[in-house]
Amino acid sequence: MTYKEVYVERFENTTNEPAYVESVIRLNPGARIITSRLLGPAFLNRFTQVGPDAVVGRWFGMNENCFIARATVGHFCAIGARTAINPFNHPVDWLSIHEFQYHPASFDWVEEYNSITRLPRTPDMFRPVTIGSDVWMGHSVNVMPGVSVGDGAVIGAGSALPRRGALPRPGGGNQGAAGAAMSREAEAVATMLDRAPIAPDGVLVVHSAFRNLAHQGYRVEPFVEAFIERLGPRATLLMPAMSWRIVTPANPVFDELATPSHVGIVAETFRTAYATARSLHPTHSVAGVGPGTGTLLSRHQVDDTPVSANSPYGLMRDYDAWVLVIGVGLERITAIHHAEEVIAPEIYLYPRHEAETYECRDRHGKSVTVKLRRHYRLNRDFPQFEPRLAEQGRLIAGEVAGTRFMLMSVRDLLREVFATLIARPDAILAPA
Description:
432 residues; 7-stranded mixed sheet; globular
């Protein structure tokens, strides 16, 4: 049987009898749903909460006194009593771990508390959880932010699933043995980034091919975590989450959480386990974590081209933004398309009368209609800019375990690309 998706802004059963949403979602007394999407039949026992920001599959059951938030759950999952999935994360690298620094209402009956100027919560406090289908969790399980649980998993009662490779608390706290060596992944990231003057509140875009590093024993999750740790809480990390092979006129719906990307294991792992937001775009979306995501990923759906001024690549021109390629060349740098669209859209883009129409749905279930003019499939010569940037001293290059990387400022790269296209609009086209 096919069930329609149900988005619930807020519903709480305050009665002493079971309550129902759309006849297939049952909430026992005290259960509630907050800003979440349910894809079919579900059972929530007493005093269980789903949400905020959860997507729950069909035939989902949670026993009493459970909590799940900021998570995507597959179908046919059973969750034991007193289980917490993605509880809120307190900051571990601030002055204190206490919520007086960011929460406006925890002690709002105290005059002194109300006089404090508070900081915004950082994205690392809200890492999503992904749980596959046909998963059974026993009683009193704790699933911490950033964890992914595969299909068919059985989690024993009382288990705690911390985020793999949990980052140490900088400058204090229990960090284990003093002076412990960095992981191989952290050393690799340090090699890539340490020569670049990336500002504490800067932006880094990473394009990668991980196969060679994986063959030599490097692990994806610690690799991603090393970037987040190295950049720090004020910086923003972005990775492409493109889906142009998947979202097509024959399959015209893009879902922020459910639509997979096809740009490699690093970017897809980042999207599903670490990113807190993804731009709404049917073909060229971007996933990100960090304070800049609220601006950089907010307007991708506005224009009818993939890399417009309102795309993350266009908006980041006003930031201290850098792009890193690992195991690939400049041919993977999506930002270069931005200059094409600005200078010579008639060469590089389909005309407006051939625009396609798509539905883009955000993580709260709200949809927008997006018109899209795709890029022409042309042979492009993006690597021509590598020697020019190197000659100007604006390219940082090196190797990690035989895998080449290049790092450059987005501003420097686009300055070179714009100048080239202004002089000759078809200069990016490779010879036939």
